[in-house]
Design goal:
With 617 residues, the chain is an alpha+beta fold. It has ten helices and 36 strands. The strands form eight sheets. An eight-stranded mixed beta sheet has the order 29-30-32-31-33-34-35-36, with helices on both faces.
């Protein structure tokens, strides 16, 4: 039997069904934990859950027929907020409207009724009895974003509206101050943003509005007030996302290190720090080897190595945590005694001896140093295999990142004898601003150079079969995978999952959030039109030598299905071996378990048919 295709107990259905994800945490006044669960087995529904009345029990608060998800900026983010211990407000996925849910009466009712508006990051202003929220208005003339307030009776007032984008509305504990983040085209929230702070008058009006972000190219993010009403912010002004305090004369550094302390804000409402009731600072440090959860700058010893969605109340902290051998978990930490309790998740899906662990991988030299994680099959039956096939994973974004945490979709491949390289090419987040900015005007070339160097070093040192190398990517990662397949003749096959094939068309047809992103990644679409032509896989189908398989959602508003169809047609016209699969019920990403499992099975079968094509590095 060929290496890479031994039977495995881990099926595609299991790999997907077990991939429940968690986020958007909160604590009520009694310290009870709440979070959102993404459930592929319920057709991709998002549900708010909380700790039950009895120890170890969980309550699902979101009834059937509702799903908690915002589509503002298409990528969404925090979609709900507690009003008090008996009520919450959430964004319903189906109509993007705000709904009020009351536990004691078991009722849910719509607060807003606009067919043209979407909402994101609701927070509760208890003093003015209103919801402060980011609003996105869709009209024939375009899309407008603003910060608004909405009463529980649906009365709406505009708080701020002069910028293209808004995120992170944040109130001080007494609700006397409001802070938020804003930015304008052509920037993204990881290139340059503004931070605002204002006084909130008893009438609800804003006064004494102050702004930071005019003088430096910095990406400000995650404003938060401490118990005393002092405002804190993350900024990368010194090259890393570190913590600063807003003083009358500017920002003062508080927690500084040569590492990022937040993830790239592709979604709004991410939280990577908070303050305990005793004033301790709880924060995250993101390292290549794995993240640390710190209390007043000192790392807390836990069994986990990745932390996000922090919420702190009194002496209790909850967050979403990842590890190398178990599924993602929601955990609670007693800060007084440093005791960790698992509230949800953390299942061990594979025997420890069969689990492929992430090996931090560095390659290249000096300013070309790059990063990723190598997973080698751990199963005993693969120990005699001298050279293993390799699948290279490319994340989307491209300014996103991958982390050294347990992922059953990676284990699906290693359980079948494949090695996996999960790559953080230059341009990825969490290696500092300079690493992130290296991709400016270089997209389609720089990451391909990194892929080539990674392949060379892995073949030389990591028992990789040079005749069995595959590459796959989703969204922008699909674009990079296709460009790698056309420029590097070292692949036995590849896959594009809702990947970009024509950046010029993407620039003309994509949604507002990314409508100027291509100018940063490639250049001006008019003056640099030659770059768009040269780097478009759809115009270079003749250069792709290996078989390619495509997966695409018909409802995708980020990468339109027409892009995939055009690429498939170009490859077929060149006589290339190509397969394409379209999903009427999916958008940008596959949220339904049956579809995601089917993709894995079809991709595996495609690679099986492609294995051992003759290729050269």
């Amino acid at each position: 039997m060929q290496a890479g295709f031994w039977p495995s107990d881990l099926t595609a259905e299991q790999a997907v069904a077990a991939s429940t994800e968690y986020g958007q945490t909160a604590l009520d006044s009694a310290g009870r934990a709440y979070w959102v669960e993404f459930r592929p087995h319920e057709h991709g529904r998002n549900c708010i859950c909380r700790e039950g009345a009895h120890k170890g029990t969980i309550e699902t608060l979101t009834p059937e027929g509702y799903s908690v998800r915002s589509r503002v900026y298409e990528y969404g983010g925090t979609s709900w907020s507690l009003l008090d211990d008996d009520r919450l407000v959430f964004v319903n996925a189906a109509d993007q409207q705000l709904y009020l849910q009351q536990f004691s009466t078991g009722t849910i009712r719509a607060v807003t009724h606009s067919k043209s508006a979407r909402y994101l990051e609701p927070i509760w202003d208890v003093r003015c009895q209103r919801i402060v929220v980011v609003e996105e208005h869709h009209a024939s003339a375009g899309v407008d974003n603003r910060l608004v307030s909405i009463s529980l009776d649906g009365e709406r007032e505009i708080l701020h509206e002069q910028h293209d984008f808004y995120a992170y509305p944040t109130l001080s504990p007494c609700c006397g101050q409001l802070a938020f983040i804003a930015w304008d085209h052509p920037h993204q929230p990881w290139t340059a943003t503004y931070a605002y702070r204002a006084k909130v008058l008893p009438t609800g009006d804003l006064s004494a509005l102050a702004r930071i972000g005019d003088q430096l190219p910095e990406a400000l993010s995650q404003p938060q007030f401490d118990a005393a009403g002092q405002l804190y912010l993350m900024t990368d002004r010194e090259g890393w996302w570190n913590l600063y305090r807003w003083e009358t004369d500017g920002l003062t550094p508080i927690l500084i290190d040569h590492c990022d302390m937040i993830m790239a804000p592709w979604q709004a409402g991410l939280r990577h720090y908070g303050f305990s009731g005793e004033g301790s600072l709880c924060s995250v440090k993101l390292h290549h080897q794995g993240s640390e959860l710190c209390i007043d700058g000192q790392a807390l010893s836990t069994a986990f190595n990745h932390f996000r969605s922090l919420a702190v109340q009194g002496n209790r902290l909850i967050c979403v945590a990842g590890s190398t051998e178990r599924l993602t978990a929601v955990i609670a930490i007693d800060l007084t005694h440093a005791k960790v309790t698992v509230l949800r998740g953390n299942e061990q899906s594979l025997a420890r001896d069969d689990c492929a662990l992430p090996q931090p991988f560095e390659f290249g030299a000096d300013q070309h140093r790059c990063y990723g994680y190598l997973y080698q099959p751990a199963n005993q039956q693969f120990s005699v295999v001298e050279q293993r096939p390799l699948v290279i994973f490319l994340h989307g974004g491209p300014t996103a990142a991958t982390y050294p945490v347990f992922n059953l979709k990676i284990q699906f491949w290693t359980q079948r004898g494949f090695a996996v390289l999960d790559l953080n090419y230059r341009g990825s987040a969490n290696y500092g601003r300079n690493y992130r900015a290296a991709l400016q005007h270089q997209w389609g070339e720089l990451e391909v150079a990194d892929i080539r160097q990674a392949v060379v070093e892995l073949v030389d040192h990591a028992k990789i079969d040079p005749q069995g190398i595959f590459i796959r990517g989703n969204s922008s990662g699909g674009y990079s995978a296709l460009n790698a397949m056309r420029k590097l003749n070292c692949f036995a096959g590849g896959a594009s999952l809702y990947g970009v094939t024509d950046p010029l068309l993407l620039n003309a047809a994509t949604h507002k959030f990314e409508s100027h992103y291509l100018s940063w990644l490639i250049g001006d679409p008019v003056h640099d039109a030659h770059r768009y032509q040269e780097r478009a896989p759809v115009h270079a189908a003749d250069q792709i030598q290996c078989p390619v398989i495509f997966f695409q959602g018909e409802q995708d508003a980020v990468v339109l299905a027409s892009q995939t169809r055009a690429m498939v047609a170009s490859l077929k016209a060149q006589g290339k071996r190509v397969e394409a699969h379209y999903f009427e019920d999916e958008a940008h990403g596959f949220r339904q378990a049956k579809n995601a499992a089917w993709v894995l099975e079809q991709e595996l079968a495609f690679y099986r048919r492609s294995l051992h094509n003759q290729v050269d590095i």
